[in-house]
Amino acid sequence: MAAKGAHGTHLKVESEVERCRAEGQWDRMFELARHLQMLGISGGGSSNRRNSPSGRFTTLDTDDFVKLLLAEALLEQCLKDNHDKIKNSIPLLEKTDHRLNEAKDHLSSLLNNGKLPPQYMCEAMLILGKLHYVEGSYRDAVSMYARAGIDDISVENKPLYQMRLLSEAFVIKACLQLLGGTQSWWSEVLPGRPLPGTPAQLRRLPHPPD
C-alpha cells in the first residue's frame, strides 16, 4: 500500500516537473528539484506516461537529473532578468551573473558523469548550447548542437518542453549560420541545413514570404 502511494507521488511530481518546464515556471522548478531530492527519485518515464498516469518508470540518477533541472532554471531566470541585453544581442558574462557559472557547472558535471539516459543527455547538450550562445561563445554552441545531433532529432510525439528546446536550438543554429555569412533559406531552417551555393548566388533567391 505504501509503495503504491509512493508511486503515485512520484508520478505527480514528475508530471508537475514536465508541466513547469513546458510553461516556463522556473521559480517553481527549484522547489520541485528539492522535492525530487527528498523523494530520491528521477523525472523519467516512458513516452506513454504523458498520456497515462500508470505509465512505467525509468530509473535515473536523481542527483544528475536534479542538476539538469537546476541548470535549466538558473539559465532561464538569468535570461529573464537580462531581457534587454538579450534583445540587443549583448553577451552575458559569468563574472557578472553567478547563475550562468552555476548552470554551466551543473551541465558539465552531468555530461562528464554520463549517468543519464540519452534523452536527458541530449537535453543537457541543448541547454548548454543555448548557454554558450547567450554568452557569445558561438563556436562552442555550434559544437554542442553538433554533439547533440539536432539535425537527426525528430520532434514527433515529444513533450512540449522538448519541442521548445529543439525549436530554440534550430533557431539559434540558423542565426549562427547567418552570422557566419552562410545564407539559409527559410524552408531549410527547421532541418538546420544551409543551402549549397555562394552567398552571391543565394542572394539572388527570392525572399521568403512574410
From TrEMBL:
Highest taxon listed in the record's lineage: Eukaryota
The uppermost taxa in this organism's lineage are: Eukaryota, Metazoa, Chordata, Craniata, Vertebrata
User: Boundaries of each Tetratricopeptide repeat protein 7 N-terminal domain copy?
Assistant: 9-177
**What is this protein called in UniProt?**
Tetratricopeptide repeat domain 7
- Sorted alphabetically, which Pfam families does this protein's record hold? TTC7_N
